[in-house]
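Possible regression after last week's pipeline update?

I re-ran a chain I had predicted before the update to compare outputs. Posting the input and the new output here so someone can diff against the archived version. Not blocking, just want to make sure nothing changed silently.
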Amino acid sequence: MIQVTFYREKTGEYTGFRMEGHAEFAAYGNDIVCAGVSALVINTINSIEAFADDACIQKIHQEKDVVSFAVTSRPVSREAELLLRSLVMGVESVAKEYGKKYIRVKTKKNKEG
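New output (post-update):
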C-alpha cells in the first residue's frame, strides 16, 4: 500500500509530503495506482523547482520506496502552495477511486506550526 502524508502549517499552508510503499494494485510495470501517484509526485517536485523560488529539500530512497519533499523557506510561495494543493487533490482523487487497500492519505501539522 502507498502511504502519503502531507504536512501543513497551523495557518493551513502545505509545506511538504512523504510518500512510501507500493500500491500492489497490479504486477510490477502494470500498476496504474503506483504510476499515477508517482507521476503526480514527480511533476509536483519538478514544477516547484521550476516555477517557485522556494528553498526545498528532497530525499528519494528507491530501495526503501520513500520520497520526501519539504519547502524549507517561510512563508511558502503562492506558486509552491498551489502546486502542493494540486498534489493533495490528485492523490486524494486516486485514493477515492481505488480505495484504502491501495493508498492511504493523511495530513499532519508541522511541529513548529
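Follow-up from reviewer: compared with the archived run. The mean pLDDT is 94. Marking as no regression found.
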